[in-house]
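Suppose you are handed only these lines of text.
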Amino acid sequence: MSGPAARDFATALRTRLQTKTIGHPFHFFPTIDSTNIYAARLAREGATEGTIVIADAQSGGKGRLGRSWVSPPGVNLYLSVILRPSVSAGVAPQLNLLTAVAVANAIADVCQLRPVIKWPNDVLVNGKKVCGILAEMQTEAGALRAVILGIGVNINAPLSAFPEELHGKASSLLLVSGRTIERSTFTASLLTHLEKYYVLWIEQGFAALRMPWEQYASEVLGKRIAVAAPEGTVTGTALGLDNDGALLVQSETDGVVHRLLAGDVSVIGGYDRGETHDPRR
Ligand code: BT5
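From them, the structure of the protein bound to biotinyl-5-AMP can be written out as follows.
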């Protein structure tokens, strides 16, 4: 799917958007290297808060730490949002958690599935990754100027769209629900949730997001996990988040509670692949 079908997605999204700020203005590309790279350029040139960049396909989709994001045409969502919150740079990583909550809400609402948030930036369904988030900061003399919030959601990708090494760990909303999801409906829902949580975060701070986050993280909380953090690997029990969004892990080696701000989590014994209903229903 390319050209006209890609533009249909953009046209349908424009008519479905119900947000005040996020999504205005809206840049769309049938194909691009990376929506985050383009949005970063726009932000440096002064683009306003709420500007979004969407592409139908990416030729160089970026993950974290130099990893790449598989971005086939016509089936998924590749979105970058420019935000300019008046917060210190140290607080900005909380936007990863906020975005995961917004994505989980959209998946529950539009697909009636039961997503799980894997701290800090993945959303899984049935134990497989359907969404990745990449928040990149622009600072000037230590002050935060902009955050480029990159969101990739596998919506209608068939298994064949993923390279074989991802077959065991990546999935799409189509593959887990058995039905095709309208990309514009999903994206409009996601942007509505994103705006709602962003306003809440600006007004009340991360504390207001802890409960919604924990609602989707039940498969991680209380479990034995290993976190590969910049300061080393911590193995222990996931206790929850503090009011700053740091993950609290009680180490099984020394009983000390570690406060982790970044890292890759694995649940020892794996994620539950059981039921897929929305816990709120
Ligand atoms: C992420 O990185 O999960 C962040 C992904 C962000 C992608 C969006 S798309 C729109 C915007 N523009 C960009 O250029 N990027 C953002 P990380 O946690 O590092 O995970 C990357 C790893 O996930 C890879 O090394 C693969 O193992 C796996 N992976 C790659 N593509 C995937 C896909 N489509 N679905 C699921 N897993 C994938």
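What can we learn from it? The two ends are 35 Å apart (CA to CA). The mean pLDDT is 92.
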